[in-house]
Every structure is written in structure tokens, then in C-alpha cells.
Amino acid sequence: MEHPVIVALDVNNQASLDKLLTKLGKPEDTFIKIGMELFYSTDRETVKQLAEQGYKIFLDLKLHDIPNTVYQAAKAIASLGVTYTTVHALGGSQMIKAAKDGLKHGTPINKKIPKLLAVTELTSISEYSLQFEQNCRLSMEEEVTSLAKMAKKAGADGVICSALEVENLRKNITDNFLYVTPGIRPKDDTQDDQSRIATPAQAKKYGSSAIVVGRPITLASNPQAAYKAIKEEFN
Length: 235
Ligand code: C5P
Description:
Layout: E1 5-8, H1 14-24, E2 31-35, H2 36-41, H3 44-53, E3 56-63, H4 67-78, E4 84-88, H5 93-106, E5 115-119, H6 127-132, H7 140-154, E6 158-160, H8 163-172, E7 178-181, H9 200-206, E8 210-213, H10 215-218, H11 223-234
Parallel strand pairs: 1-2, 1-8, 2-3, 3-4, 4-5, 5-6, 6-7, 7-8
Helix pairs in contact: 4-5, 5-7, 7-8, 8-9, 9-11
Bound molecules: cytidine-5'-monophosphate.
The site of cytidine-5'-monophosphate (C5P) has 15 residues, from strand 8.
């Protein structure tokens, strides 16, 4: 089975989106991530239309609010035809359960319920930030494991984490669970604002279920070639 390489479309207007999509190839071969930047600059109709065109979509809105608000938001997301969507694990187990219920209740009959992924710690967060800004007494590894276990128990289908954490998480969470990993940088690429990075080959070795790659593809001189090369390296 091919493991997805999801392209983060971090652009902020329809024209840039259209331009980027034509550079990536056929919709049925392309798994895209729509994050806050694009979602808040366009609208839910854009997401719906892309799903209808055949793109697989990861709608990454990282919900984090009280359970009732997250339930209603997840219900609205479920009608769009996306494959994955996200909440922050730090919102707690009741919020994750509410998101899962919202997705179930909002999915049209005969359609697949979107998979719910919980963001553990953002891949841009360093050990320093975890300890001295979040005042967390656990190490990054312990904190990510603890959040992932809680998210699984609350009904999440998987987590977003760094590829560097997958091996350890797979040891702690044995059941069917997705490990979707951003913070991917091909060898010799720039690190940008990411902290806990891995190459596509390392992500494969560590056991990522899917990888999310933004700038190394979207800013490449030939995005389609960069996408293809990363898909080959990861699979
Ligand atoms: O350009 P780059 O490959 O760094 O993009 C990574 C994408 O993954 C961004 O859209 C970012 O919002 C997202 N992401 C992340 N770390 C997380 C969750 C999502 O970098 N923990």
C-alpha cells in the first residue's frame, strides 16, 4: 500500500492556489493539505470543490476550543468531503470525543467519516519552549507519548507528530493508529522554522503512516518533480 505524501498548500489566495495546483499534477494523484492560511483566505466552498475534483484533502484547522464549539465545527467540516482533519490534543479528551462525534454526525449518508488526527506538540516547538514556555515537566518524548495515548483513548484515529517520535509511539500504542508527520526536509534542504525534522527516507524508516511536506515542494523550481521525488523516497 502506498503511504501518502501530503502537500501543504500554504498560499493565501485563489490565484496562487490555482497556479500551484496546475504545477502539481492530476487531482487523483495529489493529496493536499489545506491549512488555516488558505482556509481563512478563501472559503468552505473551495474545499468542497477541490474534493469534488478528486483531490484527497487533509483539512488542517487544528481545532482547540470548548467541546460544544468543537463538536459543531467538526460537524460542519464533515460535510466537505475531506479525508483527514485535526484538533489540538492539548484541548483534552472531552474535546477530542466531541470532535469525533461531530464528524460522525455531520458526515452525509454513504460517505466516509473523516479521520480525526490530534496534534501532539507542533514540530516547530523545541525542548526549550516545552520546558520554559509551556512549563511542561515532561521531556518532549514523554509529553508527546502521553498526549498520543490520551488522544487514542478519546477516539482519535491518529496523531500529528514529528517523524522522530514515531518509533517510540509505535512501541507505546500498538493498535491501529495513524502517524502523520510534518517537519519533513529532503537532505540538504533548508530547515525554515521547523525544529524536529526528518528526511522522507528517515520518516519511512521510523514508520510514519503519511508525511506532510510544504515548502520543499511548493517553493521548488519544479513542484511536480519535487513531489514525485519525495513520493519515491518515502515509498
Ligand atoms: O513548509 P513545511 O513543510 O514546513 O510545512 C509543514 C506544514 O505542516 C505546515 O502547513 C504546518 O502548518 C504543518 N504542521 C506542522 N507541524 C505540526 C502540524 C502541522 O508543521 N505539528
